[in-house]
Amino acid sequence: MGLGETNSNFELRRGTACFQAPALDDTEVLFGWRPQRLGSIGTVSRAKGVYLYDAQDRPILDMASGQVNVNLGHGHEGVLRAMRAQLQDFCYAAPCLNSDVREALTAEIGKVVPFAEDTKVFLCNSGSEAVESAIKLAWAMTGRTKIYAASPSYHGATIGASSISADARRRFAEPGLTGVRHFTPPFAQHLAFKDMSEEEAVHISLSLLRDQITRDGPDTVAAIFVEPVIGSGGVFAWPTAFMQGLREICDAHGILLVFDETMSGWGRTGRWFAAEHSGVTPDILTTAKGITSGYVPLAAVILPKRHADRFDARPFVCGSTTEGHALACATARACLQAYHDENVIARADAMGDHLRQALHAMKSRNFVIKDVRNAGLLGCVELASVRVGRGDRPCDSASCGNWMETLTQSLWRNGVFTIVREHMIFVAPPLTITTAELEQGLGIIERELSAFVAWAA
Ligand code: PMP
Question: How many CA atoms does the CB half-sphere of 182 hold within 13 Å?
């Protein structure tokens, strides 16, 4: 059976109850962020290019690049070759030992990150750990403790990274860090800035932020963290004037500007790093995900040398057993090579234009879509609020999961994997996807969305 030829969950269950969680998988696995009774979305047995294959070897179009990290697609031969070669040499050396592969990677990262100066790189294991490290670095570098971040934002699952996030997942880390402040970005989608020009919105939001910092005491603020394109919060690109304003505020008060490019880095938004859209340079940049295209875990914290030099005579305040892992470094080097050699990033930019047009066309056909946004191949379909299960179609979350789970499951049945959270459907395929594959994936998403809307009406 081809992609999209299976009945929709919504058609199957029309007039009956909505999504029924499958009988609990016989599993010892605990799945992150999910109520365990929902089990998994599906099972993957292999993957190649933009396709995952399930236990029956059915192709599933990966419209989320895994977790927005498999930027090069699955099973990239060049990357696999480099991994095999590294396995033959060695996989691991203690953090205090250097290696050719670690040295080469940090130099190569320095050539593509959006810093005009030479950089130094701390290699760790996840986006959360990179953010956690950046918080400690900001504390150590400034002697201050307050951290500012945007609302919405997602910076990770560990306690520090969760604390600075403004996201539903934050609550699990509360009370969390003290001294965290959130500010409101100047997006037209925010009620406060509705019907305002971008210029006015930027002016007001920067003024509010300046006031907040003045009241707090600028000499108590260590850093401002932002995702240069907000990812999990719904794909919002900042106005350049706002980013410039942030830079000015930071410069005026000795506050560090930290860009979290965990999701937005490595070509995802059509640039090596999303910082390039505004031309504003941070003091610290954190990244993960696409650095190894998800083949093995790796993350990085990148500092200009002038900041890194502050640790010449005192200990660097972070470290871990698997810091600078050799296999991860070799994998990242091969990914960088592929980003360079295979025109991946310019292609993502062009495909991003295509995605924008396709999303706007989808919006024009579906009243339930409130807004669509994208930056390169990071896209989001935001739905108007959806009420499911009224009248004769009860859907309490305890028995049915919820509509996003239903939609995700139905998409999987129809050959598409993507991330659906809150009222947002994310579209973030591998940067190697073809126009035909993108169209096919979007077609299935739209069809399932329509079936859902008809069912929920
Ligand atoms: N920062 C951002 C911007 C992210 O999008 C994420 C993950 N989605 C993280 C941090 C956390 O990364 P990880 O899941 O690798 O810990």
Answer: 15
Angle between helices 100-112 and 326-341 (to 10 degrees): 40
Query: Residue 224: is its pLDDT beyond 80?
Result: yes
Q: How far is the CA of 127 from the centre of ligand 1 (A)?
A: 5
Using the predicted structure, report yes or no on whether residue 218 has a pLDDT greater than 50.
yes
* E-assigned strand segments in 131-239: 146-150, 180-183, 221-226, 229-230, 236-237
Query: Comparing 1-10, 35-44, 224-233, 365-374, which segment has the lowest mean pLDDT?
Result: 1-10
Q: Is the CB of 231 under 6 A from ligand 1?
A: yes
The closest residue, in CA terms, to atom 12 on ligand 1 is 127
Instruction: Check pocket membership of 127 for ligand 1, CB cut-off 6 A.
Output: yes
**Widest distance between CA atoms in the chain:** 70
Confidence of residue 389 (pLDDT cuts 50, 70, 90): very low
C-alpha closest to that of 420 among 67, 94, 119: 67
Q: How far is the CA of 150 from the centre of ligand 1 (A)?
A: 15
Q: Is the dihedral of CA 415, 421, 423, 428 positive or negative?
A: negative
End-to-end Cα, the chain, rounded Å: 29
Output DSSP code: residue 420: E
Distance 155 CA to ligand 1 centre (A): 5
Contacts of 110 (CB under 8 A, 6+ apart): 118, 119, 121, 302
Tens digits of per-residue pLDDT, 119-171?
A: 999 999 999 999 999 999 999 999 999 999 999 999 999 999 999 999 999 99
Selection from 446, 249, 295 nearest residue 367 by Cα? 446
CA 43–ligand 1 middle distance (angstroms): 23
| Beta-carbon contacts of residue 239 (< 8 Å; ≥ 6 apart) | 186, 198, 201, 202
Of all helices (H) and strands (E), which one includes residue 48? strand 44-48
Predicted model pTM: 0.94
Report the separation in Å between the CA atom of 18 and the middle of ligand 1, taken as the mean of its atom positions.
31
Q: What is the token pair recorded at 257? A: 């500007």
Supply φ then ψ for residue 455, to 5 degrees: -70, -40
By most ligand atoms within 8 Å of CB, the mutation choice from 31, 67, 70, 128 for ligand 1 is 128
Q: Quote the pLDDT of residue 384.
A: 86
Instruction: Say if ligand 1 is within 6 A of residue 126 CB.
Output: yes
